[in-house]
């Protein structure tokens, strides 16, 4: 593929310089393959028939009317000509103020924003399709009033489809959607008004303003406009991200998950671009939580899912499973269908994607071949990961028996399909499924640990923790994989996992030169969370080590995480934790001045009783000068309230006693709430017997 072909597939918000177009030109964003380009002659496109489309879909022999992908009007991205240079210069000057909007008063901000809107009046849509103009508009929206946002949003209704498939205006529409989601909940509670006082300064006092549609009405109209062209928009690289945001807004789901960046609608590259070019992103708290939505939007979402479920045919649905552009939208639709109980109905969207596996699980060579290829596909594997998360126990068992059983070892070592295996293992639905998976994966645990695939083992551990089952089986698999064959060899378990080495190599290695492995540290932390006595093999191995060796772990990035997990684990008894604390007596000051050891001191402090806290306190005070010279030590001193102890020790003790009393009360409440459930479980088991 030539350079032009490569540039066509480049993903990102506005990668590269935008090509300027003459007035009236239509931006089709199409590029000729290198084989058809000639440097000495200008290419002239052949005339298009009335029924031709700018987007190709392999329709085969299916009925086009059932797919909504043929475009009778030849939909092309919007184009309104070049922006006036004077207006461009004015907006560039305003951009400095938008990048750092520090106004002396709210009135100054209102006047500034109103003046900007007045200058660009009549050129709004033209600016949305301009590279610099659309970027400045996004910054302007963040300090605009809700009335101004609704007014601009209503202007886009004239040419919605052509705007959402445009390279630049699509991002403007997305910003309007995000701000609409923020304002929608306030509008639902009646906290906003159509004409807020001082919201806008009129140029003509006699001018009568038209009442703007509400955010609810704007979103409903947007849904009605996009639904007939849904499959076409899913295949468009600029419109697809708008569909994802729209689905999240209609469902009231978190849009930007700050706690888990993997759930973000923006890629790392896009987020970095927004931060560098567009200023601070829209990080309103309401975008990270579940929001209330009007009943009308919930009904519109139901209707949208039902319509697309029937209108997208089998061939197009399967094409989206391996489409970099359409697959994220498809996955979001499946998540929403799952919540509404529509996922595994015969003929549903998922059924079409899996070649009717939901409705007909009989042998089908063509389906088996297609799904096996999907497991190894870069995009298709992401789709199957989502299917594993959403599948019912019956469907998951069918997928496991047909496409994974007997192949887990091979698939687990594959650079792509191993992620599908991880999703399968971490979503085991019951104890029987889990133990079957452990039994099949056990012979290859050693290869997984030592050939850069420890994530598969962690997925099994996660299921053991979630289902509270399989602890013995997974530990036996670890012993086998690490080459441990006797009880004495189990004393080195914590070392073998921390360094991810087989026992035979470890006994001949130079311990001081062994590097910690992050994945090994994470596996140990997972083992410490196993229910019942699952943590005992790790703790027995810990106490079998020399104290000085374990102390050195406290000052290592990965080793300190293991020690901190031991101290903070809810499954390890307090008496066992106190033995760990005793190993660090007279060493807390040295730990406090270390970047990683300071976290160990904080963890020890949280679980200590009053006498032991005073013991730590006295040690810190005795070496106060050393501790105060370190930034990490000063944080530890502040957390322990050393200054208060030095001035008013009795007051410090009273405060600590009240904190401990409060913790015990909460612990008793949680214990009492969980006890009846356990008793009821026992009664139910007895009744079954």
Overview of the molecule:
The protein is mostly helical and 689 residues long. 60% of the residues lie in helices and 0% in strands. It has helices at 3-8, 85-99, 106-119, 124-128, 131-141, 146-155, 160-164, 169-188, 215-226, 230-234, 240-251, 268-277, 295-311, 314-321, 326-339, 349-353, 365-375, 380-390, 393-404, 408-413, 417-426, 431-441, 445-450, 454-467, 471-482, 493-499, 503-506, 518-527, 536-543, 547-553, 557-568, 574-583, 588-592, 597-607, 610-622, 624-628, 631-640, 642-647, 649-688. The chain is globular. The N and C termini lie far apart (68 Å). 34% of the residues are buried.
How would you summarize what this structure contains?
The protein is an all-alpha fold and 689 residues long. It has helices spanning 3-8, 85-99, 106-119, 124-128, 131-141, 146-155, 160-164, 169-188, 215-226, 230-234, 240-251, 268-277, 295-311, 314-321, 326-339, 349-353, 365-375, 380-390, 393-404, 408-413, 417-426, 431-441, 445-450, 454-467, 471-482, 493-499, 503-506, 518-527, 536-543, 547-553, 557-568, 574-583, 588-592, 597-607, 610-622, 624-628, 631-640, 642-647, 649-688.
